[in-house]
Amino acid sequence: MPVKIRLARRGRKFAKIYSIVVADGRAPRDGKFIEILGQYDPSTNPATIKLDFDRSLEWLQKGAQPTDTCRAILSYKGVMYKKHLLEGVKKGAFDEEEAEKRFRSWLAEKEGKIQAKVDKLKSDRDAAAKERLAAESKVKEARALEIEKQRSELLKEEAAEEETADEAAAEAPAEEPKAEEPKEEPKAEEPKEESKAEEPKEEPKAEEPKEEPKAEEPKEEPKAEEPKEEPKAEEKKEEPKAEEPKEEPKAADESGEAAEEEKK
Fold first, then answer.
1. Helix, strand or coil for residue 188?
2. Is 33 helix (H, G, I), strand (E, B) or coil?
3. Domain boundaries, given as residue ranges, for the chain
4. What pTM does this model have?
5. Does the structural domain 3-91 have CATH classification 1.10.10.10?
6. Span 76-116, pLDDT tens digits
7. How many CB atoms lie within 10 A of CB 8?
8. pLDDT tens digit string along 164-208?
9. Residue 51 forms beta bridges with which residues?
């Protein structure tokens, strides 16, 4: 397999940078290489290319085969055109001075094209920025006009209100005596009856559930303990009162009274 000039990926994810390397055609893309010839960054516009011109030309003359992308890069930098001119010198089509002259003219033209592209891109960016600024300025002007219009309308409304207020103040003094009837407002202070109508505030009286302690009749159980009335039932202790024989003196009195009546 011949030696190839190809790209080996470097950098990180979403930030690709490639190295232009000379490697064996059987080696993997990012594997072993013989020599690094330069670097290629496609993320910029135009792409950034750093290349060792002399070493690249030397490897091409030795027979290294560039890949399609590397061929485009070498052609972009003039390596392929230089190789073509040197082959013409070997064949005797022209001498080295003519080859160098042609290469310099091509290189100047190429650099001019690259610079024109860079300038165009820069002018496009500047034009886009100016357009954005112009659009923003138009929007700001439109907003300022709307705000000024609103302010003028507010000022007109305030002036009209002041005129109406002055006219009303000028007409009011003549009509003030008739208009002094609102002094009867105390009679119209019917909202004071709201206190009478606000009977729902007597809800604390309606809080009858607080009388539950009175309803706790089970506490009268001590009264229901009638067995405690046993002392009254102990009539045996009242036997002295039952000693009716002591009433015999009353019988004697009755006999005495009967005797006195007989005497009478």
1. coil
2. coil
3. 3-91, 94-153
4. 0.51
5. no
6. 999 999 999 999 998 888 888 999 999 999 999 999 999 99
7. 18
8. 888 888 876 655 555 455 555 555 555 454 444 444 444 545 445
9. 38
